[in-house]
């Protein structure tokens, strides 16, 4: 429960489901970008040679596009708070 004085931080979610990729290989890329700023994560993914990077690049761009729909959000302050590859 949050009080009225605490401002809720909006989260913007994007998912990629049923990717034909092993979670062990995908987790390498997920660990690489987790906790980084969105712009820095985009740069890392664009220049990565791993196949999983292409999947995460599409998902990150989608999340940024979702955030851009809200006029109150500063796109330069976005960061990757959660990034995972679950069992499929």
Protein model, in words:
The protein is mainly alpha-helical. It contains 3 helices and no strands. The longest helix is centred in the C-terminal third of the chain and has 18 residues, at 51-68. It is globular, with a radius of gyration of 14 Å. The mean pLDDT is 88.
Helical proportion?
40-55%
Instruction: Please state the average pLDDT score.
Output: 88
Radius of gyration: 14 Å
Structural class: mainly alpha
Number of helices: 3
Record field, number of beta strands: 0
What overall geometry do the principal axes of the alpha carbons give? globular
Beta-strand percentage?
under 5%
Give me the strand/helix succession: HHH
Largest sheet: none
Gap from first CA to last CA: 33 Å
* Poorly predicted parts: none
Key traits:
88 residues, mainly alpha, 3 helices, globular
In short:
The protein is mainly α and 88 residues long.
Topology:
Layout: H1 23-33, H2 38-46, H3 51-68
């Amino acid at each position: 429960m949050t009080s009225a004085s605490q401002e809720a931080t909006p989260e913007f979610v994007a998912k990629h489901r049923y990717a034909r990729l092993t979670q062990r290989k995908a987790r390498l890329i997920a660990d690489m970008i987790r906790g980084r700023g969105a712009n820095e994560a985009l740069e890392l993914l664009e220049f990565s040679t791993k196949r999983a990077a292409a999947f995460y690049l599409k998902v990150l761009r989608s999340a940024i596009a979702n955030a851009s729909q809200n006029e109150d959000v500063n796109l330069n302050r976005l960061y990757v708070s959660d990034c995972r590859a679950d069992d499929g």
